[in-house]
Amino acid sequence: MINSKIFAPKFSRFLKFYFSIEISRRSLINTAVSMATSQQASANASKKNAISPARAENFPEWYQQVIKAADLADNSPVRGCMVIRPWGYAIWELVQKRLDAMFKAMGHQNAYFPLFIPLGYFEREARHVEGFAKECAIVTHTRLQPDGKGGLKPAAALEEPLIVRPTSETIIGEMFSKWVHSYRDLPLKINQWANVVRWEMRPRMFLRTTEFLWQEGHTVHAIGEEAQKEALDMLECYRTFAENYMAMPVICGQKSESEKFPGAVSTFTIEAMMQDGKALQAGTSHFLGQNFAKSSGIKFVSESGREEFGWTTSWGVTTRLIGGLIMTHSDDDGLVLPPQLAPLQIVILPIYREDSKAEVLDYCKNLFSELSEIAFGGEKLRVKIDDRDIRGGEKSWEFIKKGVPMRIEIGPRDIQSGTLCVCRRDRSPSEKEFVGRKEFANSIGEVLGAMQSTLFQRAKKYRDENSQRVNSADELFEFFNGCNPGFAYAHLHCDGATEERVKKDFGATIRCLPFEETESGTCIFTGKSSEQRVILARSY
Amino acid sequence: MINSKIFAPKFSRFLKFYFSIEISRRSLINTAVSMATSQQASANASKKNAISPARAENFPEWYQQVIKAADLADNSPVRGCMVIRPWGYAIWELVQKRLDAMFKAMGHQNAYFPLFIPLGYFEREARHVEGFAKECAIVTHTRLQPDGKGGLKPAAALEEPLIVRPTSETIIGEMFSKWVHSYRDLPLKINQWANVVRWEMRPRMFLRTTEFLWQEGHTVHAIGEEAQKEALDMLECYRTFAENYMAMPVICGQKSESEKFPGAVSTFTIEAMMQDGKALQAGTSHFLGQNFAKSSGIKFVSESGREEFGWTTSWGVTTRLIGGLIMTHSDDDGLVLPPQLAPLQIVILPIYREDSKAEVLDYCKNLFSELSEIAFGGEKLRVKIDDRDIRGGEKSWEFIKKGVPMRIEIGPRDIQSGTLCVCRRDRSPSEKEFVGRKEFANSIGEVLGAMQSTLFQRAKKYRDENSQRVNSADELFEFFNGCNPGFAYAHLHCDGATEERVKKDFGATIRCLPFEETESGTCIFTGKSSEQRVILARSY
Hints:
Low-confidence stretches of chain A: 1-46
Strand content of chain A: 25-35%
Structural class of chain A: alpha+beta
Largest interface: A-B, 61 and 61 residues
Distance between the termini of chain A: 46 Å
Shape of chain A: globular
Oligomer: homodimer
Number of strands of chain A: 27
Radius of gyration of chain A: 27 Å
Mean pLDDT of chain A: 91
Strand order of the largest sheet of chain A: 3-7-8-14-11-10-9-24-27-23-22
């Protein structure tokens, strides 16, 4: 039985080999783009998919199963906290590396601030407290002592409780007030990579977890306009990262009053649409005005000798980006990774019987060395040979489910013919292509680039198809009554009551006031004048 | 007055320029080594140092002042927690980058585990609990609510308190028990970069802080010998890093029973000597036997089909390494950084009047571009131009105190003569050398390499001069009564009572049983047989 399983795919490959035509470099690239749209169809045609349920059946459960099948993360024994497994963490490391380089190129420096914030500091910015009070984890004791029942209990109460940071504005503000004296010290541009804790009642892996990893940037400026520009520059940095590296199209805009960061003057956001039509807030950047400078005492002597309060910003993205990555690109066979963020871009799978083992492995090593020297996205390709002694099919499916962009199978016949049997993650799992080795090496950078752009275009197409300009309350009702409603662009008078109504009636919120919308109109509910359309959507 | 300050050094440089001789590439490198030993003398000869007090006057206070003068870290409002400022954090980033590459080359993968550990998990390994009970920070509540006095108080008590991780053995053990099923899953080699908390009564920046940053590696193996080898391999990895990158000589050995990690079978350590003779435990690696596997239930089916417990290791280094770096190399003018770990290796300081500004800055930019393309230690040189409009002396001293290996001053005359005025951090601050630009570029890699090795040799010489083989209790008494006693190599019967006595009488502990010591003898206190000499020292 095992034998038949091994030989069946071999025989099919044998046939394919004879009928295959050498595909030229140019056509290979074109195919990357053209295949994209037909992928959905071919996936549907295949008998069985690796992930059950499918996206269309149960999107939330599909999401969990993709994470499980790709070994991205695991639930932990601590409620609401997850364990990020090596494959998931490797993606996060690539996110960090790219963003960190962008931040540094923009003049930011990394630093590290304490995990704990004294309760007193937290109380200073009233709006801030209010925003986070329900989500705080609080250290009240140190030391453990026997509880007399064979267990342990907290021993020494702290004089002042410590809040586990939900964000570091208050303590960083305190430090900034010590570091900033003169306009010569400004701008001060600091970033921190850290873990933060916000107690989560309904946790979902990567999207909402009690502890999560993030970066938080904090800057101080002498002039308000400069701080506001910084906040917008960082939003643009996030947009670039989301679109160029994650291949995730985003809409840049401003949050409404009720959705903005507690204590901010204005909050800017990038919003992405997931494959169920819901919005994901993927990154935010806040112009804090002088609010935090005043509560923390960040003062400086200006060029003209006056003492003034600084103008601050803060901005952050989190491990939730990985949730966005999953829900933007993955399909019913599991994770699909854009090549730029794939910890492994090409996996070489040797296929041999005992008598050809040495030859095949040698050839694979040689190919590995050649490919490892090729550059893509400013770095050497990330390639590996998987010569584990397990069944070929099992092995292939493992890499499909993990989203590795390209698999290359190498058997004795491929060596003889000088071709590579290439399987791509943006096509159906059963689809194989035979490419001359030299051509493959020459075109691989362009092919991966085309796959990257295909993923972006596909996601953008989905978003555009699921966005609608809505001109009345009735139309909005119809829109949100449809299947997987996406983004509704509507004129809305942004006040608490109207937003509350939208939330109650449709389960939707104002995702943002998009920068690109400038045409004025009248609110579809109140008839009041509206400066621009907003995006209404259900969200994560 | 300002003018005279500007022109005085200029005039002296003018004289030096005429009397300077072009120093050839070769002699430049030789000088790097030979100057090292005379550096102390020349430093003593200079009128005033940047750091007060000097090392000889008050070492602990000197240490704090070096940190302050180099902007490495700051005290935070949270007792025992520090803020790592950009210059300090940039060093930590270099430490991380190097170590991370070494770990990955050895087959370890990064992952991330929760910050919180349920109290119940912590109770499983009795020795482990005992070891950390006094140092725990405990989250007992979530949410904040008004306290009725205008402030806030913790609102909701947790059913089970959460410990802020002092180390992650117990929770990682729990996850490993889910991931490991068969011998095919082994070895499992995981590393985590994270923050940990151990409540510290007497905090000292970088050396002992309530929160610190570290990496913790955790592995599971099918065979005990393999796990023990892993623990030793990681110790060797730490030794290589300490000696080759930090230029900090270390002694590899095993901890005595009383000093080993709570719950370990054996703990291995690298011990370094600081410039006050005290020992610094710079990294540890633990062979945990089956202890944690048994308490966490890490079981696997062996090749022969039997269910067995795994064999585990753990190993870690922390931000304390930066404390070690400071105390190994720095002098009375501040921080001295080995080139391999210097966030900035060369700073170019333009010196100009208004009429020569454009020419000088152009030349500096050109030099910057040239130097930035040169490789050192497998990477491009880290160079910057500092053209801030502040006094040249103030600027130079800033970089001296920050430990930047090389400063290059460029004025109109240097451009004319085609030489660079080079100041090196391993020489007296007033010493300048004029080197042909082309020669400088050709030799800079070798010169930095020689500086790196000089720092290592100097530290090793200090350690050797302050180490002594001690053959009786009287000799030991004399040794520890001396000024800044270093390492005493003595035969000692390692049991609790003898160790307690050494601690009480001399304030010293057994730092380790060095691997290199193999000759047996008799205990200087008890006369009992001793398998090898141990190292006794006071420590951080």
